[in-house]
Amino acid sequence: MALAKTLTAVGTVALARCGGRPFGTHLFSVWPGAAFAATAFPVRCSPGDNLALHVAVAQAPPGSALVVDVSGEPEYGYVDEILAVAARTKGVAGIILDGCVRDIAAIAHCELPVFGAGVAVREAGHDAGGSVGQQINMDASGPAPLPVRRGDWIVADDDGVVCLPRGQVSAIIAETMENVSREREIIDAVCAGESTLDLLGLDPSRVTGWDGGADQAGRCGRPRSLNARREGRAAEGHPRPRLGPRSAVGDVYGGD
């Protein structure tokens, strides 16, 4: 799906800056490099029980992200090898849960993106109910819980997890693309030797111990437009640097 590929390439950092709602910072990728974007299929497990997760694997549309609220009892291995393999086989795009997982090596081997709150050997039960497909509230990077509804977009990578509420996705993507383009120009300027203090209009005099020269101090706080910078450097015969192939920005825009 084109939208999923675009969101994955743009990444959680850029999306969070432009309206994507971050999940709590306690969540981590079970294996490095895992990343995906998909629509949410919410799951609420009863404390210490993963029956609802098994139901969700059987019922969720292929390509969905299972977003799992474990009802405030994280210290169980809610996702294990069996459940991960079943989810992968059924076409689940990934699992986000505010509880623990186990069988880390096996989950990595089956390459199912799983983001959890920790690792726990203790087995979860399979008979205490729960819910699937209904709105849940997840811990967020802020004082208020993060509501997740079926159909919201979930994006996850090594930097974290964000939610794009349905109905706001187009606006968030449009703003993100503009922001990524501006950031690309800043990175190009940094590669060309410009100072981040100058580019971002930062005031280093606020930092005790700043000993910048008069010329540098005079420029800081008054950023010159990036277009003017590019024109000036081109006139001096300096080519515009290119980002490496692993840059998320470069992946989205494919270079100039």
TrEMBL record:
Pfam families: RraA-like. It catalyses: oxaloacetate + H(+) = pyruvate + CO2; 4-hydroxy-4-methyl-2-oxoglutarate = 2 pyruvate. Signal peptide: none annotated. Mg(2+) binds at D103. Its EC number is 4.1.1.112, 4.1.3.17. Keywords: Lyase, Magnesium, Metal-binding. Residues 228-239 have a biased composition (Basic and acidic residues). Catalyzes the aldol cleavage of 4-hydroxy-4-methyl-2-oxoglutarate (HMG) into 2 molecules of pyruvate. Also contains a secondary oxaloacetate (OAA) decarboxylase activity due to the common pyruvate enolate transition state formed following C-C bond cleavage in the retro-aldol and decarboxylation reactions. Belongs to the class II aldolase/RraA-like family. This is Putative 4-hydroxy-4-methyl-2-oxoglutarate aldolase. It comes from Nocardiopsis metallicus.
